[in-house]
Amino acid sequence: MIGIIRRITPAILFLIVLFSPLLGVDNSAKPLFGIVIHGGAGAITPDSMTKEEEAAYRHKLEEALNAGYAILEQGGNALDAVTAAVTVMEESPLFNAGKGAVFTAEGVNELDSSIMDGRTLGAGAVTGVTTVKSPIALARAVMEKSDHVFLSGPGAESFAGEQGLEIVPRSYFFTEKRWQQLQKIREKKNLSPLSRSGTVGAAALDRQGNLAAGTSTGGMTFKRFGRIGDSPIIGAGTYANNQSCAISATGHGEYFIRLSVAHEIHALMTYRAMSLKEAADDVIHRQLTALGGTGGVVAIDRHGNIAMPFNTSGMFRGYRLNARTPVISMFKDN
To answer: Residue 258 domain-assigned?
Structure first.
């Protein structure tokens, strides 16, 4: 009998593989690594930009996505992938981070960033820097080269100089588009919903099963009194834990801080056994919306599942999982 079974087993296995699509069995390998990114959430609709602008955003998002993915594909770690993806967007004037950062009420570009390692729970963050070309690189340096987690203003910039990070004149961050946004808000004496869009971030899972997340922003147009949003706050705008997921957030930071949005998603997965999608949807579509906050998150869990919920009209976003083509989306109906 055993001999018969051994002889027919290959045939049976062949038939199972052959007809499994008809039986509803998925033979595709689960993603072993991947990356998800965002470029901000807000009033992003097809009629809010020209076809040329839409193409420019798609191109830059794909460039950032592929920069991080290439590292993962070659066996690199999630921290490097996140750093690479965010850096591409920091260097683009399209987003409210780095080169394209918005202006404060005083006409200054103040930059915030954070990063977290899901393997060690190490984290680094900076706020209020004005001359460091790559805030995400500085946040990572804080995590890896200091005994601290969060540095601010002149102290953070002094540390950046000690670490040999690139220092640029404040004029490097100037863009005419952001300057005109400031002038319009100064005239109206209030904030428009668009003034909070453009924060960038990424979350990644590497081949070794490690997660990481990072976020970078210029904050809110016309911000005053040294205001700090959620982006540089671990647990609010950024969180990563190998036991659950990695998250980067974008939106109205005051609400994300009050809900500890990024950590809350991790907590729902850990303590209530929710899936990534269930947890992310609950936090954004129920908790955040009920509180009156707007925005979204991008997230990836330890199994390679992706979640990108948002409650605005659009969110610049994209993901790429192993052996698959990149996916880029902007509007709610994508």
So the answer is: yes
The candidate with the shortest Cα–Cα distance to 249, out of 314, 301, 308, is 308
Q: Which domain holds residue 57?
A: 34-331
Burial 268-289 (b: 16+ CB within 10 A, else e): bbeeeebebeebbebbbeebbe
Q: What values do phi and psi take at 174, rounded to 5? A: -70, 130
What is the DSSP code (8-state) at residue 48? G
pLDDT, one tens digit per residue, over 23-82 is: 443 434 555 899 999 999 999 999 989 999 999 999 999 999 999 999 999 999 999 999
11 domain residue, yes or no:
no
What pLDDT, in 10s, does the model give residues 212-243? 999 999 999 999 999 999 999 999 999 999 99
Residues identified as active-site: 199
Number of domains observed in the structure of the chain: 1
For residues 114 and 152, the answer to whether their CB atoms sit within 8 Å is no
Q: What is the pTM of this model?
A: 0.89
Check: CB of residue 202 under 8 Å from CB of residue 85. yes
CATH number (domain holding residue 279):
3.60.20.30
Q: Which two tokens stand for residue 244?
A: 């659950």
Rounded distance, CA 10 to CA 68, Å?
40
